[in-house]
Every structure is written in structure tokens, then in C-alpha cells.
Amino acid sequence: MADLIPFNRPHLTGQEPALLAEALEGRRLSGDGPFTKRCSAFFETRYGLSRALLTTSCTDALEMAAILSGIGPGDEVIAPSYTFVSTVNPFLLRGATVRFVDSRPDHPGMDESQIEALVGPRTRGILPVHYAGVACDMDLIQAVASRHGLFIVEDAAQAIEARYKGRQLGTFGELGAFSFHETKNLQCGEGGLLLVNSPALTGRAEIIREKGTNRSAFFRGEIDKYGWVDIGSSFLPADPLAALLWAQLERLEGIQARRMLLWSRYAQGLAPLAARGMARLPAVPAFAEHNGHLFYLVLEDLDSRTRLIAHLKSQGIQAVFHYQSLHRSPFFQSRHDGRPLPFADRYSDGLLRLPLFHDLQESDQDRVIQVVLGFFGG
Ligand SMILES: *Cc1c(COP(=O)(O)O)cnc(C)c1O
User: Fold this and answer.
1) 254 C-alpha vs ligand 1 centroid, how far in Å?
2) Could you give the CA distance from residue 24 to residue 8 in angstroms, rounded to a whole number?
3) Does position 54 have pLDDT exceeding 60, yes or no?
4) How many angstroms separate the alpha carbon of residue 60 from the centre of ligand 1?
5) 293, 266 in Cβ contact below 8 A?
6) Which residue CA neighbors atom 5 of ligand 1 most closely?
7) Which of 14, 140, 167, 300 is the most exposed place for a label (fewest CB within 10 A)?
8) What is the pLDDT of residue 8?
9) How much is the pLDDT for 50?
């Protein structure tokens, strides 16, 4: 039998051993060492005016965002139901609650046209998630936010290098959060990035990230002793992890190009399914330049998806479903306001992700395409 084709395999560029050795020999192993500085500077150059703070995960970047947004008990945020728990957990930890928005009929991302109806007297913010690295309609979301004085925190975990009308995602909200988990386009095992796009928040962001102390300013020589000035926690990755991330940043263009190539090969190879109405392929609105983060099919129902997963598995191919609607989760079900969110449920049941990773061989990808087409009798 042919080799197993996994859903994901983290890519290593080959530079990691040398960069890790450099990090270890330098004996600066805690946070904000030389590699962390290199990575931050890289992102700050790339994202213009924003401040880029490396974190231990995207979840942690979002926790920082929740604190920075000043949200508290009684406040509400608006978020898609079809997302990862980390989009909203940080805001619940601050005592806020969440109003969930349905997915778009044509795309798993949040239905921007439904946001404004959910804005009430306690609404404080909107949490767009750029699912699959495909931008939400940021003009629409920013218009709602400015009409009602709401903040925007972008969950750009999957959206590194993806754009909306030519501008990088993660730079539209006051804050944007990225993930370098091993399943994402760029990875260092576990890691994240908080983009601080609002200059008014940068000072406090550094403090919250450093356990509530003004240690960052102290190390820059701006103050002569440091102390406890605010609430905070420990959100700094150890510098060797930043060395792993640096290996990826040195190869950024190649990594992105490879994903886009594989994504396009799927789109081309599986086009007959869409043409014959057997499954939907990813929709990418004209305003969005995606980043090839993931390739999915939307099947008719749960039963066909279960059968396709089993069929692929029998051929040594690992394909996986994705989120289950958060408004129907065991934790949130009783807290939800009862509105049906049919499209979020539709993607919970029907969406299937195919293997897509840097080192996926074209010949293996062709096999995936053949097996999928074969399942539909093509
Ligand atoms: C991966 C992911 C996260 C969490 O990222 P971590 O770095 O694992 O904390 C959050 N939101 C979305 C949409 C994700 O895809």
C-alpha cells in the first residue's frame, strides 16, 4: 500500500539546527532575546506602523487583546460561531459575553451583513476571524464599528500574509492576532504574534505581556528602575522558539508560494466536482487575496462527509473536518440566545479539509484528487 498521506506535517526549512545552536550558544534563552527582536523587527517593517509583539500562542495574543480592550463583566462582543474557541474564550475570561454571528452562505467566514443587528447597548467589540486566510469584508465591519464606537480585534490566526483590498490582514483592527502553531503556514511549534495597530495601546501592551511590569521600557533605558504598574501575565516565548520562527521568516516567500501552488492544484483538479454540483470548493471574494492556508470541500451533509473521510482513510489519506458551531457547544449552548445559525451548522457538518502542507508531494496530491473524484464516481 502507498504511504500514508497525513493531513498536516510541519515544515522545517533546514536552517533550524544552526539557528537553534546559535540561540543556545548565545545563552539568552528567556523572552525578548536576539531572535525575538529579529522576528519583531521583521514584522514591524512588513506591517508599517504597527508594533509586533511575539507571544507564546495566538490564544495568548487574544488574551492580551481582551485585557487591552478594557472589556469586563456585562460587556458583549460579536464573533462568528464557526471558529476556534480561542477567538472568544479570552473575552469570556474577562467576564464578557458573546453574541454569535452566522457564517456566510457562500463561505464559512462570518456574515458581515448580520453584525449590526446584534449591536446593543452593551456591545463593545467585533471579533472578525479570517477563516482559511480569506478576508472578512473589512470595509463593512469597520463601518459598523465606527457607527457604534466598537473596537475590532482580528483573529488572523490563519491569515498571515493574506490581504483585504491589497492591505495585510491583522492591520485593520486596533489589534490583530496571529498563530505560529505547527498547523499554520508559518510555525515554530507553538507561538503567536500580537499586532498593535493603535499607538495608544502599545505601552500597555508591553506591560501586560511582562507580568504587569514596565520591564520592557527599563531594558530600553527609558526608565531607571522597573516595577509593578498594571495587571498582566507572562506572554513571552523563549528565544529558541523565536529562532525556529526566524528560520521560517527567512523563507517566507517560498513557503507562501508553495502553499498557493498546492492550493491552486486542488482548485484545478477538483473543479469538476463544483461544475457537477457534487461539492463546493472554497469561495474567495474579489476583495480577498488568501494565503493558501487550507483547502476544503463543502459536502451535502454530515453523512456524505463521514463517508468521504472513511473512503479517504481506506486509501491511506487523512482528511479532517473542522469546527463545530460554538453556539451549540456543551459549554455555550445554555448561554446562547437561541437564534438558529444554520450556515455555521452547515459547515460544522459538511466541511472537509484535505491534506495541504509545504512538503506534500505533487504526486501524492494527485492521488488525493483522484481518490476524491473517484468517490463521486468521476
Ligand atoms: C489556530 C487558531 C487559533 C489558536 O492559535 P494558537 O496559536 O494555537 O493559540 C485561534 N483562532 C483560530 C481561528 C485558529 O485557527
Assistant:
1) 23
2) 29
3) yes
4) 10
5) no
6) 58
7) 14
8) 97
9) 80
Q: How far is the CA of 1 from the centre of ligand 1 (A)?
A: 34
Distance from residue 224's CA to the centre of ligand 1 (Å): 37
Question: What separation in Å is there between the alpha carbon of 316 and the centre of ligand 1?
Answer: 27
Residue 119 grid cell: 449591536
Q: Which residue's CA is minimally distant from atom 2 of ligand 1?
A: 157
Cβ-contact 216, 32 below 8 angstroms: yes
Looking from the CA of residue 83, the nearest atom of ligand 1 is 13
Residues with CB under 6 A from ligand 1: 57-59, 83-84, 86-87, 129, 155, 157-158, 179, 181, 192
Identify whether the C-beta of residue 323 lies closer than 8 Å to the C-beta of residue 86. no
Question: pTM, whole model, 2 decimals?
Answer: 0.97
**Residue 95 grid cell:** 467576564
pLDDT more than 90, % of the chain: 96
pLDDT tens digit sequence for 11-35: 999 999 999 999 999 999 999 999 9
Residue 348 has pLDDT above 80, yes or no: yes
pLDDT number for residue 49:
75
- Please give the number of the atom of ligand 1 that sits closest to the Cα of 131: 13
- If DSSP states are collapsed to H, E and C, what string results for the chain? CCCCECCCCCCCCCCHHHHHHHHHHCCCCCCCCHHHHHHHHHHHHHCCCCEEEEECCHHHHHHHHHHHCCCCCCCEEEEECCCCHHHCHHHHHCCCEEEEECEECCEEEECHHHCHHHCCCCEEEECCECHHHCCCCHHHHHHHHHHHCCEEEEECCCCCCCEECCEECCCCCCEEEEECCCCCCCCCCCCEEEEECCHHHHHHHHHHHECCECHHHHHCCCCCCCCECCCCCECCCCHHHHHHHHHHHCCHHHHHHHHHHHHHHHHHHCHHHHHCCCCECCCCCCCEECCCCCCEEECCCHHHHHHHHHHHHHCCECCECCCCCHHHCCCCHHHCCCCCCHHHHHHHHHEEECCCCCCCCHHHHHHHHHHHHHHCCC
Q: Give the nearest ligand 1 atom to 180 CA.
A: 7
Average the pLDDT over 67-91 and give the result: 98
pLDDT of 378: 67
Q: Does the structure show a pLDDT above 60 at 1?
A: no
Identity at 329, one-letter amino acid code: S
